């Protein structure tokens, strides 16, 4: 592949760069994940794509190349379809409640797989909180499958285990100083490639909702899409976002946005404070934020456990 020619196309700046087609994107990202692109050209491509922004066809090609590298799991038989939760941002200013969301989903009887980074020098990761809660990561395909089949709670798989090639791309952030395409792609991973699953997906700005929704529609994926909380998918307890479901070739709103004023939240983002709050919620000593309860209801509809949001709300209110 002529990398110089490709860089010339995608590296002309935001207003003059040209997009790659699907086949070009697929071939290029396969080579990038295989480590076959020389470092100089790789850096040039990553920066050029960051400035230009990935087109729809580029994202589809990159996604297919990544999916070829992802660990496969089998969904547990005679159970609802699994919920797949990406966690790549962690806590920046407020406590990371992704682990609480995952545990609550498991208590609803849903198989749950969480994947993400193991550590981040600037944030508190979901894996660190899970560890403090006594939930250890799956470090192999066999271990992940055993944990999933046991149904004893959410399964956390580090991205370094789930898709090592993407993890290597993610790590380039610390050398280059900026994120790259892999940070978007990683959040789209599902280990249930040829089976149904419900992916929780978030965007940083409302204007990106349609772009991500279009992606899921094109791959015939099933997802709940909303604006994230500091990059995590759990619903913001203070400003619950609108939640959209993408399924069967259509997008529909399951829950409209809402603001809450009286909410008990962790007083800090550190691990000990977050774990204490999660345990208080799980043991009934503290009210679970209503925004998360609303999100649980949407997941029951998204997985097909409930036919409508009112049925789902009744189940969630009875359990929690």
Task: Describe the protein.
This protein is α/β, with parallel strands linked by helices and 320 residues long. The chain folds into two domains: 3-67, Transferase, Pyrimidine Nucleoside Phosphorylase, Chain C (Transferase, Pyrimidine Nucleoside Phosphorylase, Chain A, domain 3); 83-319, Pyrimidine Nucleoside Phosphorylase, Chain A, domain 2 (3-Layer(aba) Sandwich), CATH 3.40.1030. The chain is built from 15 helices and nine strands. Strands 3-2-1-4-5-7-8 form a seven-stranded mixed sheet, sandwiched between helices. A two-stranded antiparallel ribbon has the order 6-9. Helix 12 links the parallel strand 4 and strand 5 (223-227).
Question: What topology emerges from the helices and strands here?
Answer:
Blueprint: H1 3-10, H2 22-33, H3 39-52, H4 56-67, E1 83-87, H5 98-107, E2 112-116, H6 126-132, H7 141-150, E3 155-158, H8 159-162, H9 164-171, H10 173-176, H11 181-186, E4 198-203, H12 209-218, E5 223-227, E6 239-240, E7 243-247, E8 250-255, E9 258-259, H13 271-282, H14 290-302, H15 309-319
Parallel strand pairs: 1-2, 1-4, 2-3, 4-5
Antiparallel strand pairs: 5-7, 6-9, 7-8
